[in-house]
Design a protein that fits this description.
single chain; 304 residues; alpha/beta; Cobalt-precorrin-4 Transmethylase, domain 1; 3 domains; five-stranded parallel beta sheet; globular; oxidoreductase; porphyrin biosynthesis
Amino acid sequence: MTALYPLFADLDGRPVLIVGGGAVAERKTRALLNCGAAVRVGAPRLTRTLRAWAAEGRLAYLAGPYHEGWLESAWLVIAATDDRALNARVKAAADARRILANVVDDPALSSFQVPAIVDRAPLTIAISSGGAAPVLARRLRERMEALFDPALGALARLAGDHRAAIRTACPDHGARRRFYDWLHDGPVLASLRAGDEAQARQTLLARLDEAAAEPPPASRLSWIDPCPADPGQITLQQLRLLNEADVLLHDAQVNEAVLSLARRDADRHLLDADAWKDPGTLQDKILARCAGHGNTVALISQPA
């Protein structure tokens, strides 16, 4: 199975065609309307809810049997009928126009998949099995719904409102990461859980004033040595160190699958074999180079 590339599409005001007027089409339409898409639904008949939305002007209804002309100007197409031959015709017409198409519950015909969603707007978590096991993806979504705090959406909105101020108060990446760690784990989230957004905003602004006046902390060096070759054998402590590191220094033996567990924005540097011969000197050089930046550095070595 080909690996899928995950992305989030801005469909605000953009035409999206749904072929089919049943319960599945209704479900897909609801999600697209929530994203601001200009939805067009083509089908001989519609559910009661879809008819109501059409009457309210929330969607455009293309009445009658499928016609290829429906695809004109569409950004995305969703085939949601119970007729596989018709769905295949819709997909072929979309391919001819270089329009991405999803055929519901038919990954072999689809050029994109619609993932299971955990919605903490504006924070959205998407889960996909690439069409291989959609029920498993839905079960995982159910578990994640219980894991993620309902107040995370409000926290994301608050952080977005003050993004420019956060960048000004915390100009380097390490400082911003520490601020966001505090934001997620500290009193701001507690205030949002209690429904007190004004207190949350006041606490955030006070912390920004403090952060702007603080000198950067000393750089910190952590060793992951020896590092397991199998990422499944990584300990929780080692995983935490990988997630905290701003800089990864590793030898050539470290498995790429292990490095992929680290933060995507961490700087990676491959050290040659000679650098590891004197660990004390190596540590001093690294800390001297990182002085004044407050970086968290992970040194990762794997036995040959």
